[in-house]
């Protein structure tokens, strides 16, 4: 059995292992172990919608037929709940434009205050509530990550912040009623936040590491390979 607190040490770095089955004694219920998997919350949005027939089951109840986009979740059917017919008062027409209302109300349920300046007014988003919650975001080094495939105030060259509303309302995540959580579109920056050397924040060191295409993970690859020898296939995939 592998100790739960096992870490892989590299040059100036220590990476904690995720919860692996190999850390649990044989015949021990997961709920009775000293450490259970950390809960996660992920919110994914399609700004311009998606073909309903690919996502929404045609029938209600636990015996629904899988749609093409949900079929990958079939092995964990008992943990899947598909909810349809929801409505967001904050996104209803009347107080803003389609773009600003839809984006800002998605996770806040609030209507944006019309302003093109810094006098923003909306509300905290549900993901940021989770980020401050015991057992969720408070248990991780980075409480939340706001990621996007596109950024700025245009999509394919078309302005998306209009109608007299600040482009800040295009952010889905809000720390409070006046502070949006800007979305990150650069994978390299995200990788640096997760695996970069936080003890060395100099621009020169980061550039040198990027040039070598390396991170702190490269310093522990040999230890990972040795550890994999004694793990089951499921744990090897997770590692």
UniProtKB/TrEMBL annotation:
Protein name: DUF1552 domain-containing protein
Taxonomic path: unclassified sequences, metagenomes, ecological metagenomes
InterPro entries: DUF1552, TAT_signal
Entries under PROSITE patterns matching the protein: TAT
Pfam short name (any one): HXXSHH
């Amino acid at each position: 059995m592998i100790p739960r607190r096992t870490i892989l040490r590299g040059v100036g770095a220590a990476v904690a292992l995720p919860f692996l089955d190999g850390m649990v004694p044989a015949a021990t219920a997961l709920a009775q172990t000293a450490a259970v998997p950390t809960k996660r919350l992920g919110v994914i949005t399609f700004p311009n919608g998606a073909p309903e027939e690919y996502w929404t089951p045609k029938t209600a109840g636990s015996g629904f037929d899988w749609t093409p986009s949900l079929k990958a979740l079939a092995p964990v059917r008992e943990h899947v709940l598909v909810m349809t017919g929801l409505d967001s008062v904050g996104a209803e027409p009347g107080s803003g434009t389609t773009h600003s209302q839809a984006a800002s109300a998605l996770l806040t349920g609030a209507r944006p205050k019309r302003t093109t300046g810094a006098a923003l007014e909306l509300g905290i988003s549900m993901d940021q509530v989770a980020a401050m919650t015991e057992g969720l975001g408070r248990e991780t080094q980075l409480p939340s990550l706001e990621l996007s495939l596109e950024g700025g105030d245009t999509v394919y060259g078309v302005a998306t912040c209009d109608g007299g509303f600040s482009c800040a309302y295009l952010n889905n995540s809000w720390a409070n009623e006046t502070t949006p959580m800007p979305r990150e579109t650069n994978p390299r920056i995200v990788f640096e936040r997760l695996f970069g050397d936080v003890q060395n924040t100099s621009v020169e060191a980061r550039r040198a590491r990027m040039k070598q295409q390396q991170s702190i993970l490269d310093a522990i690859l040999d230890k990972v390979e040795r550890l994999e020898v004694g793990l089951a296939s499921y744990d090897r995939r997770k590692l």
